[in-house]
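Duplicate of #3305? Posting structure anyway:
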């Protein structure tokens, strides 16, 4: 076992100075209030006899023990862990390749802020849901390429997502068939696990053959799910030049191009691919796709890795907390003194508890 000190919840440690400061302010307020009430309800000639034997040192000791107990309690809540051992963890999951449309039609803002940004957020939602699955990323427009190979590294997948834009593929247009082919190649020779392809697109397609390609993929054991981004009503496409000036994207005849969500094509592709279609509206859309379409599929063992299993030591500060509280309860404010035979005259103020 290697010696290694850490806290499971280090964010709770900031409560220690807050707790100490708050208690000190409370003790000061209580001391002033007690002195004020004492002057009101106790005659000054009796104060001296009431305070005989009161030990300010003991009062401060009791206060210190109470403060220490609260600090140890916060430390216990932060769950200190000392030492660890290596443990082999085997993970089972699916292989999922997400293919995201990066053509210019994805700049349409019929869903805010635009289709491409919403597609990126949808892929992040899927990543958060697929914690034990391997994820890959394909970007496509007029052509397609593998942006991120299958990996269990969420950070690598996320970084590749952040690089997606409409300039990443210079070839204009949308080729769903080629995107599907590149996604199929991303799985390599692995045929033991369910191979899932999730197409995230507005459904515009300029190359025929996607339906047949989906049917062939399903025959080879692939499952294809489609996610529609946009609205059937569509939106005129706008582009921004190097000077930041926005203008409508026009076709060869000079007409402004309006892009619409092609749900009929995406539904057909999903049906032929053995999956189903969902329209991207919010985070619940991807949750429904994963829970209803992906999670029920049998999962194979993807990998095994060594993880650290830390030893809990929260009972150390918890025991010190209890000790301080018990010790504080046994310390009395007053020490045994011999009271004088005659009356004592003094204006001493009752000390703080």
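Output from current build:
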């Amino acid at each position: 076992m290697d010696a290694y000190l850490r806290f499971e919840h280090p964010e709770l440690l900031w409560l220690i100075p807050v707790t100490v400061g708050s208690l000190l302010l409370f003790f000061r307020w209580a001391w002033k209030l007690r002195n004020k009430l004492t002057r009101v309800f106790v005659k000054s000639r009796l104060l001296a006899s009431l305070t005989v034997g009161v030990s300010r040192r003991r009062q401060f000791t009791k206060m210190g023990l109470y403060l220490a107990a609260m600090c140890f309690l916060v430390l216990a809540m932060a769950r200190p862990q000392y030492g660890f051992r290596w443990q082999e963890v085997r993970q089972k999951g699916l292989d999922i390749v997400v293919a995201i449309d990066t053509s210019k039609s994805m700049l349409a803002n019929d869903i805010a802020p635009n289709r491409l940004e919403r597609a990126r957020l949808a892929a992040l939602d899927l990543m958060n849901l697929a914690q034990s699955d391997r994820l890959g990323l394909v970007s496509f427009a007029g052509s397609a390429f593998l942006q991120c190979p299958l990996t269990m590294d969420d950070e690598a997948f996320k970084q590749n997502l952040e690089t997606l834009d409409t300039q990443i593929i210079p070839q204009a247009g949308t080729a769903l068939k080629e995107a599907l082919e590149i996604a199929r190649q991303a799985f390599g020779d692995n045929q033991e696990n369910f191979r899932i392809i999730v197409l995230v697109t507005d459904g515009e397609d300029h190359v025929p053959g996607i339906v047949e390609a989906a049917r062939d993929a399903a025959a080879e054991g692939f499952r294809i799910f489609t996610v529609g981004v946009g609205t059937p009503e569509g939106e005129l496409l706008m582009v921004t030049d190097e000077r930041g000036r926005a203008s409508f994207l026009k076709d060869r005849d000079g007409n402004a191009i309006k892009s619409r969500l092609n749900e009929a094509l995406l539904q057909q592709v999903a049906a032929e691919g053995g999956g189903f279609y969902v329209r991207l509206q919010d985070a619940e859309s991807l949750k429904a796709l994963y829970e209803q379409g992906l999670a029920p599929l049998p999962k194979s063992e993807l990998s095994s890795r060594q993880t650290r299993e830390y030893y809990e030591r929260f009972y150390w500060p918890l025991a010190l907390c209890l000790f301080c509280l018990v010790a504080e309860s046994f310390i009395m404010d007053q020490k045994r003194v011999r009271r004088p035979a005659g009356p004592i005259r003094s204006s001493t103020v009752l000390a703080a508890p």
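Confirmed duplicate; merging threads. Residues 15-41 form the longest helix (27 residues). The domain at 95-298 is CATH 3.40.50.410 (Rossmann fold).
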